[in-house]
Amino acid sequence: MSTLTIDNLPASEAEIDFSDLEAKFVIPEQEETLENVVVVDNLPIVEPSKEETLIKVLKKTFSKYGKVKENGIHMPKENLGNTTKSKGYAFIELESAKQAQAAIRNLNGFGLSKAHILLVSPFMDVEKYTEVEDNCQLPPAEPFAEREHLKSWLTDDFGRDQFTVFAGNKLNVYWNEATQSAEEIVSRSNWTEAYVQWSPLGSYMCTFHPKGLVLWGGPSWNKLMRFIHLGVRLADFSPSERYLVTMSQEPISLERVNQQLGPNELHQNPFTNDDEGNTICIWDVRTGTLLRSFAPPKNQDGSVAKVGWPQFKWSPSENYFARMTPGSSLAIYEAPSMVLLDKKSMKVPGIQDFAWCPRTITDPRTGAVKPEMLAYWTPEEGNLPARVSLITVPNKALVRTKNLFNVYTAALHWHPEGHMLCVRVQRYTKSKKSKFTNLEIFRTSEKDVPVDVIELKDCAVVFDWEPTSENFRFAILHMSDPTRPPMNASGMATVAVKTNISFYGLERKGKLVKKESFRLLKTIENKNTTALKWSPRGRHIVLATLRTIPSFELDFYDLDFDQSAAAKTGNPGDAITQVATNEHFGVTDLDWDPSGRFVITSASMWRHSMENGYILWDFKGQQLRSVPTEEFKQIFWRPRPRSLLTEEQKREVRKDLKSYTKEFEEQDERKLHAADAELMAHRRRLITEWENWRQQVEEFLAKETDEALAGGYKLPIAADTEDCVVDEIVEEIIDEKEEIIG
Amino acid sequence: MIPILLQGHTRPLTQVKYNAGGDLLMTVSKDKEASLWYTYNGERIGTFVGHLGALWTIDCNKSSTLVVTGAADNTARLWHAETGRMLHTWELPTAVKRVEFSHDDRYVLMVTEERMGHKSGIYVFAIDSSSPEQSNEPVVILRPSPVKATVAAWSYLDKYIVAGHEDGGLTLYDWKYETVVHHTQAHEGTITDMQMWKDGTYFITSSKDKTARLFETKTLNPLKMYKGDTGINSAAMTPTQELVILGGGQAASEVTTTSSRQGKFESRFYHKVFEDEVGSVRGHFGPINTIAVSPDGKGFASGSEDGYVRLHHFDPDYFKFKYDY
């Protein structure tokens, strides 16, 4: 190589001699791989005469995803007596490995005809599987490890409930106590890195971490399961806790997951290439396996559709789950196979919201399980009215529809027991100037699904069913102007809004011919209430003003308090009585315990920083305990599974309530006594210690004083501390007259 | 309990103090005047006028004849209690944050601020009660370390001086020999007040760390702790009932919005031995800066950032109060 000087610089790139560099950085020619070859199985077996047609069809099918090489389709044949037939599979060579992957992804499972569902796999797999040894070696059976009792907390002798408190970086679990402070069960720092959540039946506690989600539980509070999902934000369980849905803002990237796991734990990566880019995962809770991942729902124009959480809603049996793409379709999937029901989603133009009937209903006469049901609504469009539809799943049969007019928006509220569906329809008046609400109540378990309509004069903004199905009562929060009050940055309303609360119930009339209709029981006017919270056992309700800076009232109501008044007037609404009214400054959240005995109100630092902490009340609204806590964030009762008792058994218990009451009262008394005795003993000990110490000090001081006085120290004569009465006689000379007595 | 509202000051109160007999109340405020009141009816006897800066502290001797005040004008002054005549002025390098007569009335201690290159100091001056002339030469100057002292008090028999520091530390000095007997980290925040039990064998401190604590003087051993939920500016012990009274509230700069209950401007009562909160007295609409209990235990006074002194005489119920044990 000639040396370069300023005079003989090359004029163009072509003149530069790169040979040395080329030799140095030689790229070894890529070995020819067979990665671009795929194996297609389950083809029809054809005679040579039809072979060409089949190859043509295959070529057409595969060229959608890549270019099939010239003579790239090879279909082995075999001689069967006097005819030659294809063996039912073929090798197809595509131009590149990428195209082959695309073909596998899209055509595996493709139905060429009903009998011929194609199985497409990479050719390299064939090689891989031929290397598998013929003699199967069973992996050593893992020793059976007994799992902890996940429902152990339900066996508590006193039937206490648990709750979690998340404050600062500490997460604590407590036993609730009525008469003394809560008993701590476990307390760990940095247990969760975002927040904490219970599963719906209380078996698991979830903590959120940048790498994923962890479930805890059992008597030891050990880690039960780990789900790797980077940046997980939201989690939702299926109703019986069999499946878990997690959502993250970051699309799944195999590489990122591997990076996070480190080289030794790659086998823990649950994802495959197919999951790349998806954001939602569905897991099997017990085994921890990923069942399927989903991309966020897309609108027709390809943009990501906005769907609330939970994105996937589960049917009560957990056999189906569904997700909608607002405005266009509803996709119902089967579990655990995770495939679309009937292989396609339902086209529902305009769909705005849907909800599953929350319980599987059995026919009271035959005992047969009725098919599961879901309801959805579509808004007005052109000449078509808005419509609420009820369909059964899996056969997608329409059970009932109802047309609605002048609809602004609607909300679906299923009764928790699944017998009724209330559609809260916000409507325009004819002039379109103001809004009002219609409540359309579908009795879904009755024949032909009759609908009751309650027309309100103003707008119902909150609707809540009483959880029990005895009287089908519900409460609504209504006001004339439904605009939301102004909020500050952390979601606290800066002004209180005047609201009214009304209670309705199903009234049964007539003995021979049943006549049932919904009736207004009572209206409470001019409150600042923002939330209606029923006791999980019904009957009691708290009207709360949550997340409002100037107002923080809690009104406890009993709907069956004054039975005699109700009996006198014949209006069950007259029994409704306010049993207590309280305030909790800065209250942001309210939560009933699952047994309906206690209420916890809390003020979270996520909303404001004043007087954070929680207060425990009993169901009558009596304050039991106030626990101010610094950096208080969340408090949650541990949910309980549904009672296993039948209605008859519950009635029996209610009949025998007196004997049970006695037993429990004795128990409480003993506990209280023990606690009292303990406290008294503690105090007596403290006071004795204090008195002993004082005596010691006084003896010491007397000695010191003597010494000091001997050394010339002189205390001043203390001022007289005894009270003394100073009598002051004030004489005032009013007039002076001199008289000469002569 | 209906308090007497003493509206004599125009700026935040800095200290209130009863005389030994409990019939007089002395108050000082940032408005440069000290006032003297009858505790019986809240009538003002008069003011001590002369300081040129905010007053921080006041004390009088056992016979209630002499009054000493300390102020931000870098002086401490001696007054004739009855006439309000100024008898003497001590010039100090920096502001005087705390003054206290010794139990035998022969000395007065003064805690000075750390400022303008001057270190904080605890000055002890001898008091000659027989003449108005006083010595300008301190008997002793203690130099608190590692950080400045905020408060100080005399121990039993005036043997020691206890100082509370800005970092929450406590130091027990044998002042005559200028030696440190004990030092302990008592609080996690600035010590805001220190009040001795009448015989000087234990004392209560209050701190910005939201607690008040009780310590034995001789050893500085912690005895009790009372937890509040905001910074505590002052703590006092009641001489007859076994109670302590804590006063504080959110710092004025942190009080942002409307309702006065948000600031926790209450005097809160705790049981001295059991450490349980037993009650509270509301009324101020600014943080409570100072609390004093009458030596006869029949009342207490609180002075607040809001410029008012509330003088309370306990109801008969208070004296019947008995804690179960």
UniProtKB/TrEMBL annotation, chain A:
Coiled coil: none
Taxonomic superkingdom: Eukaryota
Keyword RNA-binding on entry: yes
GO biological process: formation of cytoplasmic translation initiation complex
Keyword terms of this UniProt record: Cytoplasm, Initiation factor, Protein biosynthesis, RNA-binding
Domain (RRM): residue spans on this chain: 36-125
Compartments reported by the entry: Cytoplasm
Gene Ontology CC, one term: eukaryotic 48S preinitiation complex
One GO MF term attached to the UniProt entry: translation initiation factor activity
PANTHER family tied to this protein: EUKARYOTIC TRANSLATION INITIATION FACTOR 3 EIF3 -RELATED (PTHR14068), EUKARYOTIC TRANSLATION INITIATION FACTOR 3 SUBUNIT B (PTHR14068:SF0)
Role summary: Component of the eukaryotic translation initiation factor 3 (eIF-3) complex, which is involved in protein synthesis and, together with other initiation factors, stimulates binding of mRNA and methionyl-tRNAi to the 40S ribosome. RNA-binding component of the eukaryotic translation initiation factor 3 (eIF-3) complex, which is involved in protein synthesis of a specialized repertoire of mRNAs and, together with other initiation factors, stimulates binding of mRNA and methionyl-tRNAi to the 40S ribosome. The eIF-3 complex specifically targets and initiates translation of a subset of mRNAs involved in cell proliferation.
Assembly: Component of the eukaryotic translation initiation factor 3 (eIF-3) complex.
Family to which the UniProt record says this protein belongs: Belongs to the eIF-3 subunit B family.
Protein's recorded name: Eukaryotic translation initiation factor 3 subunit B
Organism of derivation: Coemansia spiralis
Record lineage: Eukaryota, Fungi, Fungi incertae sedis, Zoopagomycota, Kickxellomycotina
UniProt gene name: PRT1
TrEMBL record, chain B:
Location relative to the cell: Cytoplasm
TM region positions: none
Keywords (A to Z) from UniProt: Cytoplasm, Initiation factor, Protein biosynthesis, Repeat, WD repeat
WD repeat feature ranges: 6-47, 48-89, 184-225, 281-311
Pfam families in alphabetical order: EIF3I
A GO BP entry: formation of cytoplasmic translation initiation complex
Coiled coil: none
One term under GO cellular component: eukaryotic 43S preinitiation complex
Keyword Cytoplasm: yes
Any one GO MF annotation of this record: RNA binding
Subunit structure and binding partners: Component of the eukaryotic translation initiation factor 3 (eIF-3) complex.
Role played: Component of the eukaryotic translation initiation factor 3 (eIF-3) complex, which is involved in protein synthesis of a specialized repertoire of mRNAs and, together with other initiation factors, stimulates binding of mRNA and methionyl-tRNAi to the 40S ribosome. The eIF-3 complex specifically targets and initiates translation of a subset of mRNAs involved in cell proliferation.
Family classification: Belongs to the WD repeat STRAP family. Belongs to the eIF-3 subunit I family.
Protein name from the UniProt record: Eukaryotic translation initiation factor 3 subunit I
Gene this chain is encoded by: TIF34
